[in-house]
Each structure stands twice: as C-alpha cells, then as structure tokens.
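Question (not urgent): is this output format expected?
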Amino acid sequence: MTRPPTAAQRRVIDAADPVTGRLRGTEAQLAALVKRGLAFRHPRPPHDHFLTPEGHRVRQGVTGTPEPAGEAPASTGVFAARVGGEETAPETGRPVRLREVHSAWQGLLELRRMTNPDGAVDRPCGWERKHLAEAAALALEAAGHRPAGPGPGASGYRVRTTPQPEAVAVHEPDGEALRACAATLEGAGWQVSDHREPRTGNRYLLASPRRA
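Got this back:
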C-alpha cells in the first residue's frame, strides 16, 4: 500500500496553484513528490513542477472539503483508478468517490494541457502512455461507467494490460455497455477497435492513446 504524503509534503501540495497545480518548494521537496508520482517536472524551461492527477486528488483531500453527514472522510493517500475486479475498492457512486474521480480527471486534463507540445487536452499525454490501464480506467469512471467488482462473472468494465505496446484491453460482458465504453474512450482521445477472444468468442476492446 502506498504511504500517504508526509506533513511537509502535504503543505507543499496544499499551497499549489488551484488552477494549474504549479508547485513551490525546495528541490528536495519537489524531487520527493516526483518520486512518489504526485508531481512532475515540466520538460521545457523554466522546468517548473506541477501536480499529477494523483497529486490533484491528494490536494482535494488536503484542502479539507467537508464531507456529508455519515460519509467517511476522504483518504489523503494517492488516488487509485479502478481498473475493475478489485477485491477491496471504494463504492462507486458515493459522493466522496465521485469527487475524487472528478478531481483526478480535471488534474489529468490539466496535465495534458501542460505537457502536450501544442497544449491539446483532447488526446492523452506522456503520463497516460506510461500508465495505460489506470489512464483508461480513469476516463471510463469519470464518464460514469461502473468498474466490475471481484469475481469472474461480475458486471462492469475491466481494463487489463496486453502484450501489445501502448494498448490495453477493455472487457465488459454487456454488449451495449461495451459500445458505450468505446465511445467514451474515443471521446477521451483513444483509438479503439473491437475484437473477439478466439476461444470464447467474447467481445472486447483494444484501446491505444491517440498521438494526433
């Protein structure tokens, strides 16, 4: 399990620019956040540091958004996209989870804007290409699709890595829901193709981040 940020790291995250996620801190502090996947160093001068989608999610928890009565407080740990099939996972649809997913998705769009050479937000960025399953799952959950619960027969999507470079497989037992997943990923800047498993004949999607 990933440890939550230290108190000093949370202060740096909390002080980030609320719109761009730009960070201020010592080199050691910023390097530690990068190492933990909460920040990235911009490749172009002046090489400022910005929050990643996980960092934005953590910042949301740090800023102290009040929770409704009866809701468990949001975790200040690193945000985890639901790829489907997790044994233990936050309940989809709860207000806390909806806010976490929305914050992570907005952070990802900002990451696209800051790191894509032309500032485009309609196609995946370098971070997504290094975290294919998590990025595709975040796009699906942010659009309202339900991840599968534990067990082979559970309904909902499952995103899995494949031997193909820059491609993930998306499984969904319901054909209409699978088509909806394809539309969501295409709208989020992914190239999607429909396939069938040779042995079972079950349909699934192959999705790759679009480059242009």
